[in-house]
Write a structure and sequence with these properties.
alpha/beta; Maf protein; seven-stranded mixed sheet; 8 helices; 41% helix
């Protein structure tokens, strides 16, 4: 069993690591994601670059303090035709996001970074394509009424292995990437780590 530090409070990511026999100690980084996103957007950074930067900043922040340990940072964003869509802060924002995605194809990008002694030693980004069904406003509201706050804020606006699966006509990509952690590549890296 391998041990790393997870620079995230995401229960979903912790669960994926546990299921893959990677022991992780949780130490959230608490970086100011919104300020960083605004700054990167001003520089015309793509959603993928923003996701990569956030994953690296999270991992580096914890690995500066937790020397000699591998620290895993992760970030997931939605890319809708080049527009960055972040997690909602409330149910009204969630409805606005669902209306934007309604009937369209978008990409969910999950980036991961492993750092040691304050510097990145490895990173990877994966992308999944999701096509949302065309739904009425009432159907979207009904969907939001069925999901808990914990699910809404943990999984962006959809939990792919739960109620959110019903929103999509087509899903192309790895389920773990959609859930926020491309575990296959992480395991490959850790298996070769000396």
């Amino acid at each position: 069993m391998f041990k790393i530090i997870l620079a995230s409070k995401s229960k979903v990511r912790k669960k994926i690591l546990d299921e893959n026999n990677i022991f992780s100690e949780v130490k959230p980084s608490y970086i100011d994601e919104d300020t960083i996103k605004i700054s990167l957007l001003k520089d015309k950074a793509s959603p993928e670059i923003i996701s990569k930067n956030l994953a690296e900043l999270k991992a580096n922040k914890i690995s500066i303090v937790d020397k000699d340990n591998l620290v895993l940072g992760a970030d997931s964003v939605i890319d809708l035709d080049g527009e960055l869509i972040s997690k909602p802060n409330n149910r009204n924002e969630a409805l606005v996001i669902l209306k934007k995605l309604n009937g369209k194809k978008h990409f969910l990008i999950s980036s991961v970074c492993i750092s040691k002694n304050g510097a990145m030693v490895w990173n990877y980004s994966d992308k999944a394509a999701l096509t949302m069904k065309k739904m009425t406003d009432d159907e979207l509201i009904d969907y939001l009424d069925k999901i808990s706050d914990e699910v809404l804020y943990a999984y962006n606006v959809y939990q792919i292995e739960g109620e959110g699966r019903k929103l999509f006509s087509r899903i192309e990509g790895d389920k773990n990437t959609i859930m926020g952690l491309p575990i296959k590549k992480i395991k490959q890296y850790l298996s070769n780590y000396k």
